[in-house]
Amino acid sequence: MTNPYLKRTIHRHNVASPHLDHAREFLVYLPPGYDERQTYPVVYCQDGREFFNLGRIATIANKLILDEGLAPILIVGVTVDIQRRTAEYALTGDLNPAYTRFFVDTLVPFVEAHYPARRQPQARVLAGDSLGASVSLQLALEHPTLFRRVLSLSGAFYPQLQDRIAASGDLSGYDIFMCVGTEETAVETHIGPVDFVAINRQARDLLRQKGASVTYREAAGKHVWGFWQTMLPDALRHFFLTSRMS
C-alpha cells in the first residue's frame, strides 16, 4: 500500500517575466483532497527545489494535514540559480530589484490566476532559509498589502536589512516565525563568517519593537537543511493549524 504521506501532487511551471532575462521554474504542491471550488492559503518558498527535496515540505504538509488538522495549503517553490542567488536575494544584490518585481508582478499573479489561492495578505506566507528568509522579509516590508507573514529559517538579517526594519513604521499586523540553530555562531557567507544567532536575535528585537508578532525558536542545529527540516512542522503548525486559525 502506498504511504499516504508520500502521495503528493506537484505541478511544474515555467513563467516568463519582463523583469528577468530567462523563464523561471517553480513548483506547486496541491494538498490532499484538493478541490478547485475551494480556496487555499499559499506558502511561497524561496529556494524552491531545496524546500521540496531537502526540507521535504510537501511530505511534512501531507502528514500534518492528514494527521493533525492542518488547514490544506498550496505550496509554491520558486527555483533559483545558485550562481545568481546572492545577487537576487541579498538586499544589496544587483539583481534584487528585478527578482522582487518578478515575484510581485509575475509570480503571485500567475499563481492566483491558475489556482484557487486566497488573496488576503494573511493568507500568503513567505518562506525562506538564510538569504531566502532575508528576501522574504524584504518583500513583506516593501509590499504590506500583499504579504504580512514570514517563515524564516536562520535568516541572513544583515545590517542593511536591519536598518530597513528600523526605518519601518508600525508592523503590528505582521506575523513572523523565526528559528536559528545554536551552533550557527560562525557561518561562512559571501561577506565572511557571520554569527547568525546574534543577527537573528537582533532582528527579532527590532521587529518586536515595531509591533510585529514574532515567534522565535533557538534549538541545537547548524546552518543546514538537516536542521531546518526539523523546524518546518512547527512553523507550518504556527501558521495553519486549524485550532489556531479558528
From TrEMBL:
Q: Identify the InterPro entries for this entry.
A: AB_hydrolase_fold (IPR029058), Esterase-like (IPR000801), Mycobacterial_A85_antigen (IPR050583)
Superkingdom assignment? Bacteria
Q: Which Gene3D superfamilies does the entry mention?
A: alpha/beta hydrolase (3.40.50.1820)
Question: Pfam families recorded for this chain?
Answer: Esterase (PF00756)
Q: Which residues form a coiled coil?
A: none
Endpoints of the signal sequence: none
PANTHER family from the entry?
A: ENTEROCHELIN ESTERASE-RELATED, IRON(III) ENTEROBACTIN ESTERASE
Q: Under what name is this protein listed? A: Esterase family protein
Organism encoding this protein: Calditerricola satsumensis
